[in-house]
Amino acid sequence: MQSYKLSIAILTIGSLLMTAPAGADTKLWTGTNSTLASDDANWEPAGAPDATDAVLLNASSSTNLIWDLDTSVASWTQDGYEGVVTFETLFGSAGFTNFTLLILR
Fold first, then answer.
1. Is residue 103 part of a domain?
2. Which domain holds residue 13?
3. Which of 6, 10, 89, 93 is deepest in the core (most CB within 10 A)?
4. Cα separation of 96 and 40, whole Å?
């Protein structure tokens, strides 16, 4: 099976809000070192998010974010963030293999 890399850019207009699950650690995007989500120095507290973390993008940073991690997160909140988020994902004959977007209102 041949896979193709596809980048999906999303310009945030308004807010995408999800409630962080109980016990999830919050990782705030600062983008102070680069635009890559995998760069530990871009998060407060330091360290790239993993499946147990709640991701928060807010007005404290407008640095664009390239989501280059192959992991899910406990929750994702955008509130006042005005940067561009690009999700790098794989697309093959079966469709997207590592990208799911669930919006709860």
1. no
2. 4-91
3. 89
4. 26
Residue-wise over 5-39: b if at least 16 C-beta within 10 A, else e? eeeeeeebeeebebebeeebebbbbebeeebbbeb
Higher local confidence (pLDDT), 99 or 87: 87
Q: Among all chains, which residue has been given the structure tokens 């120095």?
A: 41
Report CA 96 to chain centroid distance, whole Å. 17
Rounded Cα distance between 16 and 24, Å, is 18
CA distance 46 to 42: 7
Write the DSSP assignment of 33-95 as a string of letters: S-SBTT-GGGEESSS---TTEEEEEETT----EEE------SEEEEEB--SEEEEEEEEETTE
74 C-beta neighbours (distance < 10 Å), count? 20
Q: Contact 1/92 with Cβ under 8 angstroms?
A: yes
pLDDT 10s digits, 15-57: 344 455 666 799 999 999 999 999 999 999 999 999 999 999 9
Q: Are 4 and 85 in contact (CB under 8 A)?
A: no
